[in-house]
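USER:
Make up one protein:

ASSISTANT:
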Amino acid sequence: MIDNHIRNKIKKIKLITKRMMHSTLSGDYLSAFKGSGLEFHQIRNYQLGDDVRTIDWKSSAKMNNIMVKEFIEDRERTIVIAMDTSASLAYGSDATLKQETIQDVAAALACIAHENKDNVGLLLFNNTVHTTLPPKKGHAHLSTLLENIYNQPFMGHTNFTALGDYLLKHQQKNMVLVIVSDWLFDATEPLNNFKTLTKLYDVIAIRVTDSCELQLPDIGYIEIRDPETGALALVNTQTINHFLREQQASIKHFFDRNRMSTLHITAGTAFIPPLASFLQYRTRR
């Protein structure tokens, strides 16, 4: 059940995303979410002006003539939003928790896809993928997506390996995958399945963080609690800041190594402008 506060928030997000689709992203949405977008149609003779990258050298050798692969556009686009629901998101050093911003970002993405009449699905995960809504279209489906986005408890720990394994087991055609998380994971976790995922799909990582997860004020020793395990620890802020810098570098290396398109949003800040700028940037790639 969605309360009045969430209902009003959803109305505002729908209005803003609709305006964004018809102004900022007018005509650019398809190139922002590329997907594979093409299906093989036939092999034919090369014609002046054909892209040399479409030349099929094996067929050319057999036919003793330059042959090219011809593709047709697949207009059925599928957007799948994978939203992290782990306990680490139930944190905020200010008035806004990370989970609130993550929910709003996921809701905005669902509204954008709906506005473009795309198939849009939802995966909710923590240590497992615990909720799945298959990609569909329509107003009723959008309402179901939004209700699930805003009515989820945040608990457990984040397991990106489990998410990757699930996605590889349940592959979908022409899918754009958007993972919304704080992307806090154990640096020793291999996450090898993401290398395969990024070859199969257009994978977008949206990272929502709290400002204190990037740097703490240098105030000496403080007691902190791990929201996923409940463990308490006494730490020196100078030492923890060194750890935070290494953590940021490790996460960036992971994104770069897997060639993932990334957007960083700080919890509690306006996220629509950076989201619109990010999508505009992708149209110019």
